[in-house]
């Protein structure tokens, strides 16, 4: 399974719509198989959502996100976990350990 996290320095980017960098993580058996950084090209949210689909992302973890952008992401069939904040490694470990809470629903998310 592949997930992407918007990042700024070592934290979740506060606003997904203006994020420029992604951490793309391949996960298997509850463990990280591969991590790599990708850049968004251009300013179009259509391009950003398309990039996620092009990368075969299944789950997108981000901070705040506009309704418009979230609709584009979900339109590609990508699971969205939004309004998350914190250090990237902490969030990633919480996701892998099924302890990441989606602030929107107050429910735990599962890998």
Structure description:
It is a single chain. By secondary structure, the protein is an alpha/beta fold. The chain has one domain: Dinitrogenase iron-molybdenum cofactor biosynthesis domain (Nucleotidyltransferase, domain 5). Helices cover 25% and strands 32% of the residues. It has three helices and eight strands. The strands form two sheets. Strands 1, 2, 3, 4, 5 and 6 form a six-stranded mixed β-sheet that branches. It is globular and about 35 Å long. The C terminus is likely disordered.
Query: CATH superfamily, called what?
Result: Dinitrogenase iron-molybdenum cofactor biosynthesis domain
Mean pLDDT: 91
The residue fraction in helices comes out at 25-40%
Instruction: Give the oligomeric state of the chains in this entry, treating copies of one chain as homo and distinct chains as hetero.
Output: single chain
Largest sheet: 6 strands, mixed
CATH topology: Nucleotidyltransferase, domain 5
């Amino acid at each position: 399974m592949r997930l992407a996290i918007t990042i700024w320095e070592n934290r979740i980017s506060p606003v997904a719509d203006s994020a420029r960098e992604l951490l793309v993580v391949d996960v298997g058996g509850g463990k990280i198989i591969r991590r790599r950084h990708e850049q968004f090209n251009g300013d179009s949210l259509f391009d950003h959502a398309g990039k996620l689909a092009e990368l075969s992302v299944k789950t997108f973890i981000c901070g705040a996100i506009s309704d418009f952008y979230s609709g584009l992401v979900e339109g590609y069939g990508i699971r969205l976990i939004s309004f998350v904040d914190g250090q990237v490694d902490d969030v990633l470990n919480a996701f892998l350990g099924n302890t990441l809470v989606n602030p929107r629903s107050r429910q735990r998310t599962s890998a």
